Amino acid sequence: MILDELKCTQVQVIDEINNAKTMKDIGEIKGKVFGKNGVLTSLSRGMKDVSAEERPKVGALINEVRNAIEKALAEKEQEVENAELALKLEKEKIDITEPAQGVKKGALHPIPSVIDRLCDICVGLGFSVVEGPEVESDYYNFEAMNIPKNHPSRDMQDTFFINDNILLRSQTSAVQAREMEVKKPPFKIICPGKTYRNDSDSTHSPVFHQLEGLVIDENVSMADLKSMLTIIMKRLYGEDTEIRFRPSFFPFTEPSIEVDVSCPTCHGKGCSLCKGTGMLELLGAGIVNPKVLEMSGIDSKKYRGFAFGFGLDRTAMILNSIGNIRYLYKNDKRFLEQMK
Ligand code: DAH
Question: For residue range 207-225, what is the model confidence (pLDDT) as tens digits?
Answer without folding.
Answer: 999 999 999 999 999 999 9
